Amino acid sequence: MTFSDESKNILYEVRGKIAIIQLNIPKSLNSLTGPQYLYLGQLVQRADADPNTLITLLCSSGRYFSAGANVKNEGFENQSGAKDGDENFLDTTALWMSNFTARNVWLTQLFLNHSKITVCAMNGPAVGLSAAIVAMCDLIYGMNDSVFLLTPFASLGLVCEGATSVSLFQRLGISKANEALIFSKPVLSKDLYRLGFLNELYDFKDTDQFNKKIVDDLEKQMVNLNPNSMLEIKASVRATYQKNFEVGNVREAVLGLQKWVAGIPQARFTELYKGSFKHKL
To answer: What family does the database annotate (predicted)?
Structure first.
């Protein structure tokens, strides 16, 4: 499958000064395969390079923002691990270096370095790496009380991804972040709003209407604002914590690579599909 094949699954349009990236796979709860995460990254780069936009808006469709990685379509549960000394150790390491480490570091870094104002219209739950992407946005709006954030890394034998070891502590506080990460516990809408993760929590029933509301409000808020000042303020704020995010991103990726090479997440996914344990989703 080529990137052009993914253009129906992840939509891109520019409306005035807003680049809109919309996940459009509601039948799979907008879970993303490896190639789809790469395509998302390509669109983020496109938005960053557009000299006529100020805001990059991430939105979705259906009832979930994104259920995270669509690993079932990748067949990861059928891939065993390897240990040092095994004949396939180097090949296994190279496989996961490509399929996991490089992709996660690259995608996370794209969001950390994005020069435009990043906004997320969170229409429903966000899970895993997709939740990490939401947490890196500058402004986040929730559609209704069905919104929650879930980082089920411990349930799957993984570690933090997408700099969540930094972003969740910054946005939720150490107590709630520890609970969310260590126990794979969902953070519900009321706590997301109370703790300041969400800038606003609405009461919309329809995702399209919610997305339109966010676009309309953003257009109104940009009136009479100096474009360069907006971007320079964003850059100044981001500079205060950028290094911590970058260190966390690399640390997480290295630890995660060790898990995939050892075959731990693959075994958990196999148990999940067989019904041996229940995912907290």
So the answer is: Belongs to the enoyl-CoA hydratase/isomerase family.
